[in-house]
Amino acid sequence: MWELGILELLIAFFLLLPLIRPFIKGLWPMDGLAALPLLALGVAAGLFPAYGIRPECFPLILYVIIANIANLPALGAVFRHLKNDDFRDRGLFSTGLLVSLLIAVTALAFYFVPAFDMRMADSGVRTALVQDTGRNVNGRPVQLFLRIYEPDMGSEVPEKRALMVLIPPAAGSLMTVDRLCGELSRRGFTVLTYSRKGIDSPAIGDTRKKLPLSPARNMRLLRIILQGTEWAAANKLGRALEEERKRDLLFLLGNLPLIDMDREQVFIAGFGAGGAAAIILTASPGFAAAHPAVQGIIGLECPILSSLEQEPVKSLGVSREEAGWLRFFWANLGNRFANLRPGRVKGIENPPLPEVPAFYILSDRALYAQRRGNRYMSILESFRMGTSPAALAIVPGAGPLDYSDVPEKYPLLSLLFSGDAEPVWTREDYLGGTASLIINFAAALSPDRPVFNRTVLDRSISIDTNRAWNLTAPGYILGL
């Protein structure tokens, strides 16, 4: 995305010229320079519509906004055709500080520009729109915008490819899994993924138009991510999101023939609420018998919010007859005030136990008790207590966002939410490494299928299995 870097440098150039004007006499007569910060603001305003949310640009855009506010008197003088030489009063120290800050925010934005085009893949991808008429939102059937990755690879891939149903994270949606889906499809899977308006931020329509969430829904999604494992109100929102993902998945599994996706071997992978939904759904009694084609599930950074127990609402504990009206009044008043306090999540209740083999891929934060908290306890308990074979993979240095396109597309986010250990993968390794872990797990379940060619991975990657694991040795998932 070199053009994004050029625009960032152009913004910096428009801001730099008015800053250094006091020290270059040739610029003194150029009163029009006062309009350059406004031009920089216009360019900055077009970055997000053109390139999506770019966190590394936030400091630069904040600088542009502040610069324009400070530049209002000079800009007003230009529009009124008045002479303004106030810029000459600016000292060397203040100018040096402002220029240094501009260089810093520009360098931050420029350094974290992705090295490749951010546009969604076109080759080997087809799109479709399906409607779940059994559910309605605002009087309309629920619409799922599908993307199906199945590149033409000639004779290299057998005719019958296994199907991977991949549920993206709600935050970032298809933008954060597009390249991962492509990588999985090149290695032998047909990949079916989707987005949904009102749930995903953003949804990608059948015309590839981005359908953003409203600010209120985005804030709700942020609460789920940041507070869903700690606070009862956010946990309740997260449970509702998991339920919607579960119903989406159930609909897709029941309608594969209608979208030309009839497969004998199906795997399900999910991020966040999608992974939790896959675990909850496959733990439903009778699921394996009703869906024999589903061979296994993969949960990537997917705390199961529905299995976290919330603090109960405080009850009064006495009746009016027992306490008398005055004591009852004060007790009832105190109880009401106590229940106004935000409730917390206090532990785990009934972790779901999938009926099919499961593979959990987690950040290395799950290794450390002080970082684990409620975020990982639900998934670790489901793994430990599972009655079907389950494996757990933790890559040293991997953060909560790294098993996706994020390290390459949003490198600053990957850095800010990095893992705790010394990393064994570089930023460019995560995409192929995550695909290799998934492929190797699928190969462990189907060692007789030549389509799943394993890849040898770093031995320092932690692979653990539960007591029900009766398949290959754990090292098999590392390609050993």
**How does the overall form come out from the CA principal axes?**
elongated
Radius of gyration: 27 Å
Give unreliable regions as ranges: none
Adjacency order of strands in the biggest sheet: 1-2-4-3-7-8-11-12-13
In this structure, how is the largest beta sheet organized? 9 strands, mixed
Summarize the structure.
This protein is α/β, with parallel strands linked by helices. 41% of the residues lie in helices and 15% in strands.
Question: Could you please describe the fold and organization of this structure?
Answer:
By secondary structure, the protein is of the alpha/beta class. The protein contains 17 helices and 13 strands. The strands form 3 sheets. Strands 1-2-4-3-7-8-11-12-13 form a 9-stranded mixed sheet, sandwiched between helices. A two-stranded antiparallel sheet has the order 5-6. The chain has a two-stranded antiparallel sheet with strand order 9-10. A hairpin with a 5-residue loop joins strand 5 (203-204) and strand 6 (210-211). The longest helix is centred in the middle third of the chain and has 23 residues, at 232-254. 39% of the residues are buried. The model has no long low-confidence stretch (mean pLDDT 86).
Supply database-style keywords.
480 residues; 17 helices; alpha/beta
Task: Detail the topology: elements first, then pairings.
Blueprint: H1 2-20, H2 36-45, H3 47-51, H4 58-70, H5 72-79, H6 92-111, E1 125-137, E2 140-149, E3 162-167, H7 178-186, E4 189-195, E5 203-204, E6 210-211, H8 215-227, H9 232-254, E7 266-271, H10 273-282, H11 287-290, E8 294-300, E9 308-310, H12 320-323, H13 325-340, E10 345-348, E11 358-362, H14 369-385, E12 390-394, H15 406-409, H16 411-416, H17 429-445, E13 462-465
Parallel strand pairs: 3-4, 3-7, 7-8, 8-11, 11-12
Antiparallel strand pairs: 1-2, 2-4, 5-6, 9-10, 12-13
Helix pairs in contact: 1-2, 1-6, 2-4, 4-6, 7-17, 8-9, 9-10
